[in-house]
Amino acid sequence: MARQVDLVIVGAGPAGLMAAAWAAFYNLKTVVLDKRPSKIEKGHADGLQSRTLEILHSFGFGDQIYREANRLQEVCFWVLHLLRATPRLLITDDFQNPDNNGVIRRTDRIPDTILGISRFQQSVLHQGRIEDYFLEFIDRTSKNVHIQRSTEPFGMHIDETLVEAADDWPITVRTRSTQDGLTNGVPSNKDDLIQCKYLIGCDGAHSWVRGQMGLVMEGEQTESVWGVMDVIPVTNFPDIRMRCVIHSASSGSIMVIPRERGLVRLYIQLASIQPGAGHRYDRAKGSPEMIFEAAQRIMRPWEIRYDYCEWWTIYQIGQRLGNGYGAHDRIFLAGDAVHTHSPKAGQGMNVSIQDTYNLGWKIGSVLTGTARRSILSTYESERRPIAKQLIDFDRKFSRMFSGRPAKDIADEAGISMTEFKSTFEKGNIFTSGTSVEYAESQVVSSSSGKILRPGVRFPSFQVVCQCDATPVQLADALKSDGIWRLVVFCGDLTQDATNQRLKTLGKGLEDAISALNKPVVEPILVHASSRDNVELADVPAPFYYRSNSNERDYYRVFADDWSYHHGHGHAYGGYDVDRNQGLAVLVRPDQYIAWAGDIDDTGAMEEFLDGCLL
């Protein structure tokens, strides 16, 4: 007898757990299949970009991760210099690197995270701890999400006659144990049959789900082979606790990533290994000793060794993109299952989490009957272009990272370090995740040139709560809880014109048949008056009463005003909102702006929402 569930997720890595977190919030009956016997304990992904931390914070545990993680402050660039003059950091020629006939020296430094881009800066924490936080959230949020380890799918069928039927289970998955014993107390050496309404494949670069759909990865495998090590180093290298990019002349390159608990991650180019075009390097031939010898050659004359190695691996750079993201808007691919690239830009875990962050609320909204099933097609139309941009960037970044530095301006075979630094700086805004912009679609209206324009994530500035004078980040009111927000910047409430526009909006919010009066749409008000000149009763009741209830909600009316201990947030200036004209924006459950317009244009708001919601 088959079990019937809402959702099956294949893979319990970061992408799968992000999808499971949404499933837990929506209380969807969900099974997560993972062939591993346990979560990741060490190594693997570790970089957390600004946008990812914003997302995790919106679920209520990003600030805990941020406190535990190591925050990266600065990037230092080290390049080989021929011994024409004594480098500032080195005193004698005893530091000469005989392999390179020169020395490596620090040539520049830049901030690791672009200033002002987010309140969170790039940080590192190993994947296992991030999985811990996801698992704790899922466990305390819902008892309907079950993670079934040591289990893999080995058969899948989709009944195409049922894909448009809301209350049927068109997908059948057959599973089996990857080891003898028990899975959640059930004998796991027996086959199991699961019927589900939706399925997400988060099962990595060699995705079984992708293969079942007949989709393929398109792209190229490079000849560049790298080793990765997490060690506690013993070294006289001065920037070992900075993020560093080190280019030698002929021995290869290194990226240094300082981590938590005194660990340092080293990405080490194995320049002596050339597998040839189209060939894969046999990783079984590698060893930590071989990798670290390459690191020592690159870092000469600086000395480095280690007494403790927590994890190591070898990988060959490849940039590939799936030729499709799913089938019938019932089966979807996310993360490495649909795009692969090098890990040095710190995008693997981040883009994977952002994939299922985009997808999870859409599936949850459809299954709980609040959104039209047609919105599911926007997953591929929104996320595939982002993956394409990532692979294009990674192709250029990896080529420059793996190349030797140019000896002089006439050395066309070498890499210009000036160009490399420029690429690195420009890439930082993309890799932060904050610059992602979605095109017009069913869930994104046509865009204008403002900061708060449809398709971009809602940024955060400080405002002051009207009811208790508490300073808050406005984005903290946009929790990942499946709710659409209508954020209204009404302007100065002491002006008659402002009040008239707000009253018009208030009537629309109170209209029983209006799309604006749905339980999944929550209005938030940000006024530009002095808080002393405004009372809560001065604004329409929907901004401080809960939908269809007499219960008051005191934390949806804010002032762009001074706070006693944190100064003025100047939110209207930060958002580029005219204090006389005002602005209203509809924000999706994933904090991306869906619509923007005049605060009294209730007709346009309702029309847009009617196209998305049921």
Automatic annotation (TrEMBL):
Alphabetical UniProt keywords: FAD, Flavoprotein, Oxidoreductase
Domain FAD-binding, first and last residues per copy: 5-393
Classification via InterPro entries: FAD-bd (IPR002938), FAD/NAD-bd_sf (IPR036188), Phe_hydrox_C_dim_dom (IPR012941), PHOX_C_sf (IPR038220), RIFMO-like (IPR050641), Thioredoxin-like_sf (IPR036249)
Record domain Phenol hydroxylase-like C-terminal dimerisation: where: 436-613
Superkingdom per UniProt: Eukaryota
GO MF terms held by the record: FAD binding; oxidoreductase activity, acting on paired donors, with incorporation or reduction of molecular oxygen, NAD(P)H as one donor, and incorporation of one atom of oxygen
Any Pfam family matching the protein: Phe_hydrox_dim
Homology family: Belongs to the PheA/TfdB FAD monooxygenase family.
Protein name as it appears in the record: FAD binding domain-containing protein
Organism, scientific name: Saxophila tyrrhenica
